[in-house]
Automatic annotation (TrEMBL):
<protein>
    <submittedName>
        <fullName>DUF1697 domain-containing protein</fullName>
    </submittedName>
</protein>
<dbReference type="Pfam" id="PF08002">
    <property type="entry name" value="DUF1697"/>
</dbReference>
<dbReference type="InterPro" id="IPR012545">
    <property type="entry name" value="DUF1697"/>
</dbReference>
Length: 179
């Protein structure tokens, strides 16, 4: 079985999924080693499905159990490790709350990447590597000019996680792989 990290888009605040029922629903659906991390749509699980089929099945479980559609982006544990290793801003990990990774549904067009990179202002830095966009906001994401426009400018669905969450999910995936 392959270990996957499934990221739910637009979860948090008033739009949360209860994690215990979510874990139970995914386990009941046949996924193995189901674990969640905080209530913002982070699930680590094992499956024999490929990523596309996994996203469809997890989405169907959420729709059936919780009565709402859910957009999900998934990466297997190897891809997740590659995203972490490809971080173009290694100096930014000293403050992991201000380094964000946007996991993209697909690789964006080169022209879209150029547009995004041209919008960097002040001390912010952005880089796209494959199907991940890295955003360093040393003055905080709350005042970032780019944080709300990455997905729109790249024209690819995305969901962002800070560096702490990226590392925690990698740790959870490694634990699931060992089970």
């Amino acid at each position: 079985m392959t270990v996957f990290i499934a990221l739910f888009r637009a979860i948090g605040g008033a739009n949360q999924l209860p994690v215990q029922p979510l874990r139970e629903a995914l386990s009941d659906a046949g996924f193995g080693s189901v674990a969640t991390y905080i209530q913002t749509g982070n699930v680590v699980l094992k499956s024999d499905l490929d990523a596309q089929a996994l996203v469809a099945k997890v989405g169907a479980v959420v729709q059936q159990r919780f009565g709402r559609p859910q957009k999900i982006i998934a990466r297997d544990a190897r891809q997740w490790s590659e995203i972490i290793a490809a971080n173009p801003f290694p100096d930014a990990v000293i403050d992991p709350k201000v380094l964000h990774v946007f996991v993209l549904e697909a690789e964006p067009a080169p022209e879209a990447v150029e547009v995004l990179e041209s919008r960097q202002v002040d001390r912010e830095r952005v880089a796209v590597v494959g199907s991940a966009a890295y955003l360093h906001t040393p003055d905080g994401a709350g005042i970032s000019k780019l944080v709300k426009s990455v997905e729109r400018l790249l024209k690819v669905p995305a969901t962002a996680r800070n560096w702490n969450t990226m590392l925690k999910l990698q740790e959870m995936a490694e634990r699931a792989a060992a089970e």
